[in-house]
Design brief:
This protein is an alpha+beta fold. The chain contains five helices and twelve strands. 22% of the residues lie in helices and 20% in strands.
Length: 271
Amino acid sequence: MAAAEPDFVVTHQGGVTFAEGQYTGVRFFCDHTLDGSPRAALRVVVWSGSADVRYVAVGNDGGSAVTVRFARPLLTHTVTVTRTDGLSFPVHAVLDRDPASGSDGTPTTPTTPGPIPTSQIDFSGAGSWSSGSAACVGYIDEALDAMGITDPGARRSWELGMDTIASRESAYNSPRWQINTSDANAVGPPVPEDSARPGAPFQCSRGVAQCIPQTFAGYHQAGTSVRIYDPVANFAAAMNYVMDAYGVARDGHDLAAKVQQADPDRPPAGY
């Protein structure tokens, strides 16, 4: 990774502007000759009509990279980075197109027209999408687009309820809370390829809305990826699930009433 030609280098501040939709993320890595040096701390601001702020730490461990995925790649045009560590060694930044993406950066991960077998779930990418409430609302909107829910009032109801769920289930898609290996769901055969925790039990809850694989597969939304850690696909499956399991209306007006975990005025309760 350290051999890649950087798009920009960060010593104190750095950044780059590009055509909207050209890239899906940015990778940061350090010079591998600096093994053992302190980790670089970065404040990364991704501009896509609004500012999505991420804080990342990049280690000097043989060239491994940290990737910040863009929540809205088709609208993203600028990345600015500030060092918050007070250190002077360079951090290299490379703009990234998803290998499974088209030339405009739009994900082309194979999708299916609805439910999928659990054997088709892709466990890659944990923690590589942006976190925070603003990013989550963007993912919810993309899920609603895939579901064909266009009414502004309905979209607002789903945004409020699912953003509350995201805050409670994964701290708004925090890389730290991508998988739950400690609750009753955490059983089943190991998943060696799990990107959040290799070898984690199959039935662990995963992703922004903490779907178990059976829920993700059974309620998979056509037009979304088969990656369980993809927040758009994860949110869409969760919304399909609560409509079926809890009887939530398609316009979402009763989401908070029927799913306590989606109600910010009541204590967390799982779902």
